[in-house]
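WARN retry 2 of 3 for item q-0093 after timeout on previous attempt; input resubmitted unchanged.
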Amino acid sequence: MASQDARLLFVAGATGATGRNVVKQALARDVPLIAHVRPKSAQTEPARDWPRKATVELADAGALAREMQGCTTVLQLIGTMRKRFSTGDTYETSDIGTTRQLVEAAKTAGVDHLVLLSSMGAGKPVGTYLKAKAEAERLVRESGIPWTIVRPPAFEGEYHHPPALLGVLAKLRPFRGLRPIHLDQLAAVLLRVAEKRAPLGAVLEGDSLWEAVAAAGR
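OK item q-0093 returned
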């Protein structure tokens, strides 16, 4: 079992928008991490300059578990959007399948904390996207490894531009939990949860997520 005193993070989805921000903040603060990248992405920006990378396909279970050896925490930040379906991505492969692969490797490697990036609404899923997020959550909850789930609302930052109406609605008390979260804020929360190994067995959504944003100094 991994030690709580010295955390080593394995960041899956490191080349995505959220992952890049997590890695950037971690490197700026010298937080030990291994960034997972697929072989085809290893020499792209910014991955090629990252000091520690696990260049492996998630489908290679043995190699993935070996890359995780010594890690305390797995951050599962992989997901897809419908607009990527034309490239072969699906919710089954990108959201559910990768979570299953990471959970199995984490069990083998002795990881003691799983941090899953999910989505607001996954607790009462409607539609294929949220149902996929709910299934990924189930895999994490039933893994036997202590976990934390983060369910953000819409993102803003980089290429994410939430509808202006959402910002207006979020000013109303009943809808304040819908306020878009900036990628910097989300990354700070994920990093703090991983470093602190807390809160365990918790879902950060709505008010609890914004409290975590404040605790992370964002």
